[in-house]
Specification:
Protein name: DUF2779 domain-containing protein
Largest sheet: 6 strands, mixed
Number of helices: 27
Number of domains: 4
Organism: Thalassiosira pseudonana
Strand content: 5-15%
Radius of gyration: 28 Å
Strand order of the largest sheet: 3-6-9-10-11-12
Structural class: alpha+beta
InterPro entries: DUF2779
Pfam families: DUF2779 (PF11074)
């Protein structure tokens, strides 16, 4: 709801909303950018299928929670609902109130003009320049005081476990402060409670509640999402006790957080540029004044406080769409440093440093050193390690990143370079037994379980890919598994298929990238639900691959972090960040994959090393995203859905396969995209190992 809202008259109010408060806590200057269309946001996150999936997951849980209040009324501009008021039926046609004034008036009328219990969804409440739309407002008569109680309920999809207390999960020791994990959620509900209390002083008691998915509960078929959606408004309004029983039977938990909210409002708050002793309540009061007092179009809210928080700034926009738009990030840095916007855009800044700490970035900025090229090797001397040690320290990795930047600045033609701890990596590789097995799992942990008897965020392992490398370093796609049948749990078939693929591996070393595969396999093998149909031989053969087993999987990510750095990776050991730079640096990979010779189960005669018009290598994951399912029917819909190019998108695609009706062509397109993506993941692992072999041979 950020922005200028017209309120009946010609006056204009710029509202301070929950989302603006949350944004300002990361940086108050963003209040200017978020309320001014001249400052576009970086849309990388919005365009990310996984981010969209997480947002949809939150929406699904929100809809589920609303369904637990079947008498509730949605406050939206385009809905007309009947509400029984004092025994008479009143038709609340909110569609006539398209402006904020109308929504606010509708909310007030429904909350105050009845002696009965009233529950509203997305009710609109304002006071002066504050505006909130709580997920659920539940007004009733308090049993204890016989007065009016208004429950402000914030729905969050963050996992909760009712086997633990609020005391142990949300409070720090001796209740001195709120744990950082939960503080943003408490601040959200605290701001809403603050505004509701101001707007409704006639209400005797305004209480604060969080509603979250409960890991300790199991899905009840009667309260599956589809069943909840189909529920109709009851002829009689349930009591609080009846509603609580419905919630108790669901996978949601309703928590009273009054004490936490009071603490949040009156405790000091931390944000860039905060003043000593400022409380959260002080801050939101000052922000609403600044927001409406600023000279619109000018960045007049506080001086910019550039620092480590700028690394994730959503207003860091590289491509400015028009002359009348600006990068908020560049504006702050230009004002704080005296640099030009061209300089800021051109080179990596100190906030781009791998594994930075706030104190280190603060030190550099205090010394007016803004670019990575301004740093020297002396800053990265690790007292505990040096260049001759067996592994690469974090500080050494940072210095390599700085060196990369300096080389690029000085070389007209930059040749990618790499650092490898040859002795240590060679020692590790000598322990491997061929054939080598590279595996990658794709999993989904939905907030609302797909199946009865499962808990929120229970994991579904729905896919794996498996490449093999022979002792002659030849690579082939050995097997794959995808279980996307709607309504069927994939975990048990997954274990059977995994055993068939690598369970009887005959001593060959098995590789994962990070500990994900180990954690997934360990979790499933501990569940009697998923192992009941497995033979003892299958369980034993898979168990030896675990970290505590006799033949544990080797974590290539850890090896990359300890022994390998390559220009262009930004210091990261993520396989998505390493693959393209490794292709650029490895003559061996360029030779193997520079022609149309790769054939797997989902690719035929494919060329993975391709150059763009500027002779720069194209990221294989970008090549993957360009592949479209080739069918005549529903082509536009299919190509929109069928691009899976990272793990988050894979989880989102699996959710689509489980949740939406689609044509056979759409389903095949999505499944084909999942198979291609997972195959590239394990091929990428094999590519990295092939490159390492080449690097080590070049050093001999």
């Amino acid at each position: 709801m950020a922005g200028i809202k017209t309120l009946g008259s010609n006056s204009k109010i710029r509202y301070l909303t929950k989302s603006l408060v949350r944004t300002a806590l990361t940086c108050p200057r963003k209040l200017v950018y978020a309320t001014n269309s001249a400052y576009p946001r970086n849309n990388d996150k919005e365009d990310d299928p996984f981010i969209r999936h997480l947002s949809e997951e939150g929406q699904r849980f929100g809809d589920y929670c609303k369904g637990l209040f079947p008498h509730g009324v949605e406050i939206t501009p385009n809905i007309s609902r009947s509400l029984e008021v004092d025994g008479k039926t009143s038709h609340d046609d909110v569609s006539k109130s398209l402006d904020v004034d109308g929504l606010i008036a509708s909310t007030r009328r429904l909350l105050l003009n009845s002696q009965q219990r009233v529950t509203l969804f997305e009710g609109a409440i304002s006071h002066d320049s504050y505006f909130v739309r709580p997920d659920i407002l539940d007004r009733s008569t308090s049993i204890s005081s016989n007065g009016t109680e208004l429950r402000v309920i914030e729905v969050k999809s963050k996992s909760w476990d009712s086997r633990y207390s609020i005391e142990s999960k949300m409070w720090n020791a001796n209740r001195t402060s709120i744990k950082a994990t939960y503080l943003p959620y408490i601040q959200d509900i605290a701001f809403q409670t603050f505004v509701v209390r101001l707007a409704y002083p006639e209400v005797e008691h305004v209480s604060s509640w969080l509603m979250m998915p409960d890991r300790a509960k199991k899905m009840n078929r009667k309260l599956m999402l589809d069943s909840v959606k189909e529920s109709t408004i009851k002829t009689s309004i349930p009591t609080l006790e009846e509603t609580q029983q419905t919630i108790d039977d669901s996978v949601a938990t309703l928590l009273n957080v009054d004490e936490l909210v009071d603490s949040a409002l009156t405790s000091s708050v931390s944000y860039p540029g905060n003043r000593m002793g400022e409380t959260f309540q002080d801050v939101i009061q000052s922000w609403v004044e600044l927001l409406n007092g600023q000279d619109f179009g000018l960045t007049s809210i506080s001086p910019p406080h550039v620092g480590s928080q700028c690394a994730s700034c959503e207003y860091r926009v590289k491509s400015i769409p028009s002359k009348n738009t600006f990068s908020g990030f560049d504006t702050c840095w230009e004002e704080a440093s005296g640099l030009t916007k061209d300089e800021i855009q051109k080179e990596p800044l100190v906030v781009d440093l791998y594994g930075y700490t706030k104190s280190v970035i603060k030190k550099f900025l205090n010394e007016d050193r803004y670019f990575l090229r301004d740093l020297s090797v002396g800053e990265f001397k690790d007292k505990k390690k040096n260049e001759s040690t067996k592994s690469i320290s974090s500080m050494q990795r940072q210095w390599y990143q700085v060196e990369t930047t300096q080389r690029k600045a000085n070389d007209s033609v930059h040749t990618p370079q790499y650092v490898i701890r040859s002795e240590s990596l060679r020692h590790e590789m000598q322990r491997w037994k061929y054939p080598l097995h590279f595996i990658d799992f794709e999993t989904s942990s939905p907030v609302l379980p797909y199946h009865e008897g499962m808990s929120p965020y229970d994991m579904f392992a729905f896919q794996f890919s498996h490449h093999i490398m022979t002792d002659s370093l030849e690579v082939y796609h050995a097997s794959e598994f995808l279980h996307a049948e709607r309504g069927a749990c994939p975990n048990e078939p997954f274990l059977h298929a995994l055993y068939d693929a690598i369970g009887a591996f005959g001593g060959g070393t098995v590789f994962q990238w990070s500990a994900h595969e180990n954690n997934v396999l360990s979790s499933m093998l501990k569940s009697t639900v998923y192992t009941s149909s497995l033979s003892s031989r299958e369980i034993e053969s898979l168990s030896v691959l675990l970290s505590e087993g006799s033949h544990p999987m080797v974590d290539l990510c850890k090896l990359a972090k300890d022994y390998y750095y390559v220009d262009g990776s930004g210091g990261s050991s993520s396989i998505k960040r390493l693959l393209l730079p490794t292709l650029n640096a490895s003559k061996r990979l360029q030779h193997i994959y520079g022609s149309s010779t790769y054939t797997g189960k989902n690719f035929g005669n494919f060329q993975w090393y391709q150059l763009d018009e500027c002779d720069n290598a194209i990221d294989p994951y970008e090549l993957l995203a360009r592949i479209k399912y080739n069918q005549h029917d529903d082509e536009a819909t299919i190509s929109e859905r069928s691009s899976v190019a990272h793990g988050g998108a894979a989880a989102a695609a699996y959710h689509e396969l489980q949740s939406y009706d689609m044509s056979e062509s759409e389903r095949k397109a999505l499944e084909s995209s999942l198979l291609r993506y997972c195959e590239l993941d394990t091929l990428s692992m094999a590519m990295i190992v092939q490159a390492w072999h080449g690097f080590l041979e070049d050093e001999q």
